[in-house]
Amino acid sequence: MTDASTLVYVLNGPNLNLLGTREPEVYGHDTLDDIAMMLEDRAATLGLTIDLRQSNHEGHLIDWLHEAGSREIRAVILNAGALTHTSIALHDAIKGVPVPVIEVHLSNPHAREEFRHKSWIAPVARATIAGLGPLGYVLALDAAATF
Ligand code: DQA
User: 107: helix, coil or strand?
Assistant: First the structure.
């Protein structure tokens, strides 16, 4: 059983299962499995354990945030995909749990369409990293190691 204080959930929302083939000019060629491997390597050097999950369903992400809260894990790294821009329920879930959440985006939503400029996650996140591709997840893990 993993010590919860060294555990980091890496939660990914809608369409991120398509990474690698989805709009590669925007999101790059790495798959979510590639990102998981990068994070596992980095976690090993940091003495952390990652649990990477993806769902296309808002409720799953909410349930996983609640689970993170009840286990009092180190941190959650969250790329909520398009739910970032729409989900007050995710905003409330983050607010409701005693776990720091780092918001990550592969692209820089502020440099894209106007509908991506609003984030319901940012006001309740410990930090936001956007526009650095998969490196953003690795940097978020480095940050989580300091929490
Ligand atoms: C994204 C940015 C969102 O606007 C978009 O809906 C995604 C991916 C990113 O990682 O850049 O699905 O979160």
Answer: coil
Q: Which atom of ligand 1 is nearest to the CA of 27?
A: 11
Backbone angles phi, psi at 8, to 5 degrees: -125, 120
Q: For residue 2, report the distance from its CA to the centre of ligand 1, in Å.
A: 30
Low-confidence ranges of the chain (pLDDT < 50): none
Query: 129-143 burial, b if ≥16 CB within 10 A, otherwise e?
Result: bbebebebbbbbbeb
Nearest to 80 by CA among 88, 72, 71, 90: 90
Q: What's the distance, CA 142 to chain centroid? A: 13
Please state the pTM of the whole predicted model.
Answer: 0.97
